[in-house]
Amino acid sequence: MAESMKGLKRTCRCAEVTKADIGKKVTLMGWVQKSRNKGGIIFVDLRDRSGIMQIIFENGPISEEGFEKAAKLRSEFVIAVEGEVMARSGAVNENLATGEIEIRYGDLNASSDEIHIKVHGKSCHGAYPDTGVDAIVMAAAVINSLQVLVSRCISPLDNGVLTIGTICGGTAGNIVAGEVEMTGTLRTTDRMVRQNIIDTMTRMVKCTCQAMGGNGEVTVTPGYAALINTDQVVDVLVETASDIIGEEHIHWKKCPSMGVEDFSFFLDKAKGVFYHLGCASRRKKITAPLHSQDFDMDETCLKLGVEMQTRLALRLLEREVNPAISG
C-alpha cells in the first residue's frame, strides 16, 4: 500500500496532496484492479452484466476557492443503468471508525456563494466628519443588519450561514474613509432559501447605505451547488452496506454539513448518493481531524471502500427494471 501511495503522489499534478485525497484514489484504483484480477479481494465478471460504467478521476484536490475546477473532474463514479444515470461517491471520515459508514437522506452538504459588498461614502478630514459620509460607519451598520438574515428572514427549520470574513477600508487614522469593501461566504442547502437571502441582503445593503447618505452594492459569485442525495439510491446503498458491514455499523447523519463537496455537480445532473467511509482507529491512535497536518487514516478502511464501490456498482447494473430507483 505504501508503494501505491507513493506512486499516486508522483502522478498527482497539484501543489499539495493529502492522505485523504490519496485514500479516495487508492480505493477507486483498487476497485478497478480487483474488478479485473482474480487474485484480488473481489473478482468481478462483467460479461453477463448489461449497462455502462464510467469512472472519472479528479486531477488533484480542489479547495473551496477552486470550485470551477471541480465541475470538470471528480474521482468518483457516474453509473448509467437503463438510461438512468446513477452517481455515487465515498470520502474518508475521521469521525467514524474503520468498518463504519455515515449516510443521510436528502441534503448532505451546503451550497456556497462568494459575497462581495462595496460601500461608497465621501472621504473628508477626521476633524470634520460632518463634511463627509463615513464608509466605515456604514459598513459597521451593514454588518450588524446582516445578522438578522438568518435569525429573522428565513425559517428556523431551514439551514443558512452568512459569514463576513474580510473588511478593508480607509487610508489613514485621521481621514474619514470614502470606501469600504467586504467579502464573505453564504452557505445554504435549499435554492429558494439561498435566493431569499441574496435578495434580502442586496436590499438591506442598499437601503442601509442610502439611509446614511451613501450607497452600497452586492456582488454574488456562485460556487458549489448543494449536495442532495437521492433517497431511492440511498436505499440501495443502505441495502448494500447492510450486507457487508451490518446495519449496526451504518450511522445516520442528523444534520447536513455547511461545508461544501464538489461531487454535488454530478448530483445536479444525476440521481446518486454520497457517503462517508470511516478511517479512524483509537487502538492505533489514528483520530486527528481530516483537515490538519496530523491527519492519518487506518488503511484497512480501503478494503471496505473497494468492496462497497464494487458491490454497489454491481447491484445497480443488475437491476434492469427497479421500481425503487426508477422514479
Structural write-up:
By secondary structure, this protein is an alpha+beta fold. Helix content is 32%, strand content 28%. It is built from 9 helices and 14 strands. The chain has a 6-stranded mixed sheet. The protein has a 4-stranded antiparallel sheet with strand order 8-10-6-11. A hairpin with a 2-residue loop joins strand 2 and strand 3. Helix 1 (2-11) crosses helix 2, helix 2 crosses helix 9 and helix 4 packs antiparallel against helix 6. It is elongated and about 75 Å long. Residues 1-18, 36-44, 70-78 and 320-327 have low confidence and may be disordered.
- DSSP summary, beta strand count: 14
Query: Could you tell me the mean pLDDT?
Result: 80
Structural class by helix and strand composition? alpha+beta
Q: Topology as H/E string?
A: HHEHEEEEEEHHEEEHEEHEHEH
Amount of helix: 25-40%
Low-confidence stretches: 1-18, 36-44, 70-78, 320-327
Please outline the helices and strands.
Layout: H1 2-11, H2 19-34, E1 52-56, H3 67-70, E2 76-81, E3 84-97, E4 101-103, E5 106-109, E6 111-120, E7 124-125, H4 135-146, H5 148-152, E8 160-169, E9 175-176, E10 179-188, H6 191-211, E11 215-222, E12 227-229, H7 231-245, E13 250-252, H8 264-267, E14 271-280, H9 301-317
Parallel strand pairs: 3-14, 4-13
Antiparallel strand pairs: 1-2, 2-3, 4-14, 5-12, 6-10, 6-11, 7-9, 8-10
